[in-house]
Amino acid sequence: MSTRQLAGQHPAADPDGPNASALERMPPQDIAAERTVLGCMILSKDAIGDAAEVLEGPSDFYRPAHATIYLAILDMYGRDEPVDPITLTAELTRSGDLDRVGSAPYLHDLVQQVPSASHVEHYATIVRERAVFRGLVDAGTRILQWGFACEGDPAEVADRAQSALLSVVDHGGDTDVLPLSQTALGGLAAIEERSRTKGLRGLATGFTDVDALTSGLLPGQMVIVAGRPSLGKSTLALDIARHVSVKNAVPSLFFSLEMGRQELMDKVFAAEAGISLQHITRPPQNLWLTCARPSLNTHYLRGAPRGSGGPGCSV
Fold this sequence. Notes:
The chain has a three-stranded mixed beta sheet with strand order 2-1-3, covered by helices on one side. It starts with a helix and ends with a strand. The chain is built from 15 helices and three strands. The protein is mostly helical. 57% of the residues lie in helices and 3% in strands.
């Protein structure tokens, strides 16, 4: 075979050619982080609960073998059995999955490459983030196909595309239907992790009794303040937002359909100064008011548009 024919079969590598394109289209993943998470879970029982608290499920792992190992560890954890390379090997052998995951030496390699089991939450966060990015890629691919197909009502296609993206944000792209046995194991691990947490698990609202009932404001929750008109629902919600931003230095966003920015700021100033709102709205002459200045970087207010009305607010 001539040199010209060989060159035709094996073209020179091009930075912008097919090889580079294939690398760019590789789904987001971090195999090293996946291996380290599994190694931490094999080394430490506490790491199992920490990892289960961060990960949504086995689909967060890019490699199917890693998802199988993760499920086996959770299954043993749920039965309160010790997890180590030997017991895990026996468990995978019993289920017939040992050859699929790479045999016993692979489990020992997972343990040997762990820098520190105490950092499992950091490694699990990396795995979780890559899973979310894979979900975005999958949703984007479907949206691209819908766009090129030019089928159906454009408004309905746009709604479908929006739902696809929101499902990734809300659920991290994990739309698999899982049996209760798998979700229960992760739930038990999360409960054990909470038992080791002292104090509030969420953000303090500034109201001790409310915090005692709710454990603070937790991620992903929607809290509805219900009551009859003029009972102070908006004031209560604003006071919680003020406490979160001013006391805890956590950004908050407050929407109101019944009060403008100035009225909202009057309430914030009165609460911070510990004085009556009337002293802000109708200040007596020669009265000096000392008000704590809220951080403009962490507290955002959106008042009602001019001419709008109606009850209701959301934090």
